[in-house]
Amino acid sequence: MLALSLVLNGIVLGSVLLLFSLGLTLIYGVGRIVNFAHGALFSAGAMAGVWLVASGVPFGLALVVAPVGVGLIGVLIDWAILARIRDRPMVDSLLLTFGLALLITGILYELGGRNVQIMPIPQVLGGVISMGGISLPAYRIFVSILAVALTVALILFLKNSKWGLRVRAANDDPEMGACIGIDRERLMHSVVGVSAALAAASGVAAAPIFTAHAVVGDKILILAFMTVILGGLGSLRGAVVAAYVVGLILVFGEGYFGGQLALMLLFIMVMAMLINWPRGFFGEGRTE
Amino acid sequence: MTGATLSERRTRSRGGLIGLAIVALAGIVLPFASAGQPFLLMLASHALIAAILALSLDMLTGNTGLLSFGHAAWFGFGSYVAGLLSKSASSDIVVLSLLTLAATVLVAGVIGAVLVRQIGKTFAILTLALSQIMFAIVFVFSDITGGEDGLQGIPMATFLGMQIVSPTTWYAILLVALLLALAGALHLRRSPLGRAWLAIRENGERARFIGMNVNKLKLMSYVISAGLASLAGVLFVLFNGATSPDLLHWLESGKVLMYVVLGGVGTIFGPVIGAVVFTLAEHYVSTFTDAWLIYFGALFVLIVIVAPGGLFGGAARIAERLSARKSGRRTAQ
């Protein structure tokens, strides 16, 4: 019974992780940037969501407004900061996003992020659903469905829209994409914006479970990094599978050994996998 | 041609010696300047530890171009290992340093062997994860490590049976440690090993094609860097008398990275200067504002955009341009 309930919780965590890592993969695919600030954007989304709900905005609306707001901030960040180092070596982009993570965390601290803020679960989604002796809060089911739905919508959009076509072209070969007339600057603005919005959306959706404060995104960022490495850096379907693998490993580890030990276990497993399969589950990880 | 490189090498080694002399002189003058202000001496001691830590990261990033976002992992590892050993085994500073170094070389060797095989981005991500894992381990074994409260009550360090008590003695020990580390780093830079590292930094692919064992060389750099960081940890815990999980936090790793970026990656003296400047600035900024993380982050972003070579690198570039103009004028005449 415990095992089955852990499986369900693992799927919930995996879904949140999936939605969050998707933004990381997207920004990596188009801009070749590893975004260390992604976790800070998760925290920003969670705190914005709590603030909106506390000032009377209905939860459903907050779930839209906060990601849109953070997404616009993402566009601003790309336009004002990331665009300055477009043609610099890879090392600079790593340092820059790391500095951004510090900056955003600092700002969130000043906006009240030192204290843990609780997001109440909306009344419609309250309660517990039990089936065959296993019970799971209804809200967790809602979060999983929401995350999966958003992921499917994004993948469909990538496959079927003009924007998606450009993103995929830039993902496969940025130089060729530029040659056939894709405006790399504008595409990058939109990609960073969407990526930031996805981080914020997962932050708001997960706030009733994880609470909200300035560094709530730290742990999920590490989990997402493990996810994209397991799946292969830049591989979309690798990330989908890896998100659930990481979610299950973590929840089972927490269930049987305790939270901190589970993180250790996950790290050791990732390291062990990298010895033999450095390019992830499907061998699609980039080597550049 | 050979003569030119020889004289160039000679001037460069002279530059290193002059740099060492300046650091030593500045270090010796300070205790006299700060007489009667014990707090200033303590701040300077912490700056020296930060300088050793910065140098340790530069041994990795400056030599091979690998970026570690979790260098605090080894700083904290050294401090915890030395702290626990000093409670159970010996309080002699040399014995503790050697034992901690051995432990670090062993652990960093195993972890590094996997890490250095990855591409630069994966390496960066995994180093950040490593520091988080080290942070987690402190809480897993909180009955030994003290968990959130940190490791308290470290016995006073001894050297050949004498207790190290006076802050001035501590300052002298830290200064000597920094000078030794600097001399070692300068020597390595000029040795064949250092040249091979630079080849990897400039172009790993070519280094491999001319027959270098790139992974082995990178691993050596990683282990040396981790070892020096753990020694900084040993000095910290013995000087401070306690250690805490904060040392392993990614914020600490960010600070170490900042020292190196601020000073200039690969310049050896730059990170040392960066560490001292930053430690002092952090202290004075945090006295008048709570939000120093904002200033820290903004400065970090600004330096990466505006001055990727760091303060020291920027100054060196200006000096180079000036001397080039001078010699250009000479040839024109």
Automatic annotation (TrEMBL), chain A:
What kind of membrane protein is this, topologically? Multi-pass membrane protein
Alphabetically sorted, this entry's keywords are:
Amino-acid transport, Cell membrane, Membrane, Transmembrane, Transmembrane helix, Transport
Q: Which PANTHER family match?
A: ABC TRANSPORTER ATP-BINDING PROTEIN, BRANCHED-CHAIN AMINO ACID TRANSPORT SYSTEM PERMEASE PROTEIN LIVH
Q: Which GO molecular-function terms appear in the entry? A: transmembrane transporter activity
Protein name, per record: Amino acid/amide ABC transporter membrane protein 1 (HAAT family)
- Indicate yes or no for the key word Transmembrane helix: yes
One GO cellular component term of this record is: plasma membrane
- Native source species: Paracoccus versutus (Thiobacillus versutus)
Q: Which GO terms describe its biological process?
A: amino acid transport
- Signal peptide positions are none
In the record, the note on similarity to other proteins reads:
Belongs to the binding-protein-dependent transport system permease family. LivHM subfamily.
Task: Respond yes or no to whether keyword Transferase is given for this record.
Answer: no
From TrEMBL, chain B:
- According to its UniProt record, where is this protein mainly located? membrane
Choose one Gene Ontology CC annotation of this protein and give it. Answer: plasma membrane
Q: Is this entry keyworded Transmembrane?
A: yes
GO molecular function terms listed in the Swiss-Prot or TrEMBL record: branched-chain amino acid transmembrane transporter activity
**What species is given as this protein's source?**
Paracoccus versutus
What sections of the protein cross the membrane?
A: 15-33, 39-57, 64-82, 94-116, 123-141, 169-188, 219-239, 259-280, 292-316
What protein name is recorded for this chain? Amino acid/amide ABC transporter membrane protein 2 (HAAT family)
Matching Pfam families? BPD_transp_2
Q: Which InterPro entries match?
A: ABC_transp_permease, LivM-like
Q: Which key words tag this protein in UniProt?
A: Cell membrane, Membrane, Transmembrane, Transmembrane helix
